[in-house]
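user: can you give me the structure for this one chain? C-alpha cells are fine.
assistant: on it. calling the predictor now.
[tool input]
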Amino acid sequence: MNRILTSMAWLLTFLLAGCTGVPEGITPVSNFQLDRYLGKWYEIARLDHSFERDMSDVSAVYSLHPDGGVRVINRGYRIDKWKSVEGKAELIDPELKPAIGSLKVSFFGPFYGGYHIIALDPDYRWSMVAGPDRDYLWILARERSLPPAIQMQLVETAKRLGFDTDKLIWVGQTRPDA
C-alpha cells in the first residue's frame, strides 16, 4: 500500500510540476523585478482557451498579498456583463538571484499553471507571457493598446519561438474601467 501511495504522490508531483514548466526552447526573462511588474495590465492579444473565450476588455491586476505572495484579479467582459476571478501567484524560484520571470499562478485551489514572461519592455510597459506549453500566449500592456511596430515585433518573436501566431485573438479594449 505504501508503494502505491508513494507512486501516486510522485505522479501527482510530476503532473503538477508539468503545469508550471517552461515550454522547451523558451527562456523566461532574467533580472525580473516583481515589484515593477505589479499593477494593472491590459490584454492586447492571446491564444484562445476556454476560460477567456469570447471575452473582451480583459485585464489583470497584480498586487502584493500580506502573506508575501501576489494577489491576481483577472477581469473581462462577456455576454453583457463583467466577470472576474481572483487568484494567487508566486515566483517559481524566489531564491534565485537575479530573479527569473517565471511564476506559478492558481485560480483553482492547489492547481498551478506556469506564467513565464518571455519578453519584457525595459520600462515594464509591455510583456509577452507563455504558459506551460505553446498553447498559451498573452501579449500585455500597461495601456489599452500598443504601437503597431511593437505588436509586430512581439508577434515575430512569438512566431520564431514556435507559437501559432495566426491564431492570436486581438482583444478589444473599448469599455471604461469600472
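assistant: here you go. Residues 73 and 86 are 4 Å apart (CA to CA). The longest helix spans residues 2-20.
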